[in-house]
């Protein structure tokens, strides 16, 4: 999809980080915007900074782990603008714990936001996108954690591996149907966003995370520092996404150096080796 002007983009997790950068880039491209985030106040403040006319902008609070919120978001987008041309399933959360320290509620929260939100979006957006005229594109934000398995991030890794394989499957299915819907999966490494403080937006129904053990706390500090020291920015991610959409490119891995680790993992599999520690 090469034309963006006067088309409609739906972006989840749009109040900050990569989601906000995607919204800013879409606004500069002249797109109509439907933006969703669980933090309604922060989303409203972010929306004020976008160079978009009031009649071309719609914001909505959404807990993307709930199917009814995704369904309502789809209804809003199609009712307001009569079509969706760029769907960015971007909302995501992270939690650093050793695998055996994760509670059922931790798993439900992380999988709900990171994976089930994309599952629900496929169910509620794709049939309508298939029925509309012209080209459209879906971008699912995964992570290099969907291609690798970093210690102390089991729930996050599982959710992002799920997003990658769901995206690959969706791509193949749409291609076989000769649908005019492209698919891309974004797999960034460390980007200085606030994902390492995701618990600030953890819904009450999931309760509070238990205190980490000393080992988990050490991993948590290490990952927090890695996130904050990331050299590529959210704007870099947004630019990479729009380049990929224009080129109809599926894999979007902006951190090129991480591909060495991905290659090593593939070689471990092909050579029947045990996993090489990251």
Tell me what the structure shows.
The protein has eight helices and seven strands. The mean pLDDT is 97. The protein is of the alpha/beta class and 278 residues long. A seven-stranded parallel sheet has the order 3-2-1-4-5-6-7, sandwiched between helices. 46% of the residues lie in helices and 12% in strands. It has helices spanning 17-28, 40-48, 67-81, 104-131, 154-176, 214-228, 234-247, 259-270; strands spanning 8-12, 32-37, 57-61, 86-89, 136-141, 181-186, 251-252.
Helix content: 40-55%
Distance between the termini: 36 Å
Largest beta-sheet characterization: 7 strands, parallel
The percentage of residues in β strands lies in 5-15%
Discrete helix count: 8
Say how many strands there are: 7
Q: Mean pLDDT, as a whole number?
A: 97
Oligomer: single chain
Overall shape: globular
Strand order of the largest sheet: 3-2-1-4-5-6-7
Helix-strand topology string? EHEHEHEHEHEHHEH
- Radius of gyration computed on alpha carbons: 18 Å
Outline the low-pLDDT stretches: none
Q: Assign the structural class, choosing from mainly alpha, mainly beta, alpha/beta, alpha+beta, or little secondary structure.
A: alpha/beta
Provide the descriptors you would attach to this structure in a database record.
7-stranded parallel beta sheet; alpha/beta; single chain; 278 residues
């Amino acid at each position: 999809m090469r034309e963006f002007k006067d088309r409609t983009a739906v972006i989840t997790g749009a109040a900050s980080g990569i989601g906000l950068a995607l919204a800013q880039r879409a606004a500069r491209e002249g797109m109509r915007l439907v933006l969703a985030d669980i933090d309604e106040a922060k989303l409203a403040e972010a929306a004020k900074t976008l160079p978009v006319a009031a009649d071309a902008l719609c914001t909505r609070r959404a807990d993307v782990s709930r199917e009814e919120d995704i369904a309502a978001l789809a209804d809003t987008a199609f009712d307001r603008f009569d079509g969706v041309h760029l769907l960015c399933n971007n909302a995501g959360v992270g939690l650093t714990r050793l695998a055996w320290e994760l509670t059922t509620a931790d798993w439900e929260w992380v999988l709900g936001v990171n994976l089930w939100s994309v599952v629900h979006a496929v169910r509620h957006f794709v049939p309508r996108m298939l029925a509309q005229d012209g080209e459209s594109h879906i971008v699912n934000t995964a992570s290099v954690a969907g291609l690798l398995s970093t210690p102390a991030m089991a729930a996050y890794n599982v959710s992002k591996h799920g997003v990658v394989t769901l995206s690959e499957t969706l791509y193949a299915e749409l291609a076989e149907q000769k649908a005019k819907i492209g698919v891309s999966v974004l797999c960034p490494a460390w980007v200085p966003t606030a994902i390492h403080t995701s618990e600030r937006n953890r819904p009450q129904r999931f309760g509070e995370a238990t205190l980490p053990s000393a080992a988990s706390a050490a991993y948590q500090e290490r990952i927090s520092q890695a996130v904050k020291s990331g050299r590529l920015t959210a704007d870099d991610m947004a630019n990479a996404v729009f380049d990929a959409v224009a080129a109809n490119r599926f894999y979007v891995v902006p951190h090129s150096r991480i591909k060495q680790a991905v290659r090593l993992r593939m070689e471990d599999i092909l050579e029947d080796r045990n996993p090489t520690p990251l």
